[in-house]
Design goal:
The structure is a single chain. The protein is of the alpha+beta class. Helix content is about 25%, strand content about 40%. The chain contains two helices and ten strands, in the order H-E-E-E-E-E-E-E-E-E-E-H. The strands form two sheets. Strands 4-5-1-7-8 form a five-stranded antiparallel β-sheet, with no helix packed on it. It has a five-stranded antiparallel β-sheet with strand order 3-2-6-9-10, with helices on one face. The chain is elongated.
């Protein structure tokens, strides 16, 4: 029995579909690197704007609590937080006052540095005010990172609990040398930045 022959229109239509499929595949392959380059460019620009060392805290967005982030930089032993937001090395970029005072939908603070001079860095968190919700403990997510070229290295990421208004907890202290973390210098011994700053300002 002779196999029926395809007519010329069927052959043309089939070839056209194959051609279109190949064209679509080629376009996808060509576009993927461009999309990745654009994403990488955007991320790099954000990181450049954010600074060389970044410390940030977040807590529950429905919490009215006012939690503060404090940083202590080497050299001039500067303390940066809501009461003194601008230093030679660190800047407090966002001072979040809690849900009922800030309508962004986030409870979020962050500090960044301009450069990473050698020396010891310290970070602490403070339960500044419960804003009327009572002595309710607040869980605070903490992230501290530093830049090396286009890479961001994590120094510390953890969740800590502040138990009552007025409490300050030292998060971590560590040394940097030649823009590199001295891993064995990490310390979690108790210390205060905020209360020491208040005592100095009150003099």
């Amino acid at each position: 029995m002779t196999r029926p022959r395809e007519d010329s229109m069927s052959i043309v239509f089939r070839d056209l579909l194959i051609l279109l499929a190949l064209l679509m595949l080629t376009l996808v392959v060509l576009l993927i690197p461009l999309i990745k380059v654009q994403q990488e460019s955007t991320r790099t620009e954000i990181e450049k704007a954010a600074g060389d060392m970044i410390a940030e805290i977040t807590w529950a967005p429905d919490s009215p609590a006012d939690i503060d982030l404090w940083a202590n930089a080497p050299k001039k032993n500067e303390n940066v937080g809501y009461a003194s937001p601008y230093g030679e090395i660190f800047n407090l970029v966002r001072d979040d006052l809690g849900r009922d005072v800030d309508f962004s939908g986030l409870n979020y603070e962050f500090i960044f540095s301009r450069g990473i001079p050698d020396g010891r860095y310290r970070f602490s968190i403070v339960y500044y005010s419960d804003n009327g919700m009572g002595n309710t403990p607040v869980d605070v997510n903490i992230s501290i990172r530093y830049r090396e070229g286009r890479l961001m290295h994590v120094v510390y990421e953890e969740r800590m609990t502040l138990e009552y208004p007025g409490q300050e907890k030292g998060v971590i202290s560590f040394e940097m040398r030649d823009r590199q973390l001295i891993e064995e210098s990490k310390s979690f011994e108790p210390f205060e930045i905020f209360h020491g700053t208040l005592r100095r300002l009150e003099k």
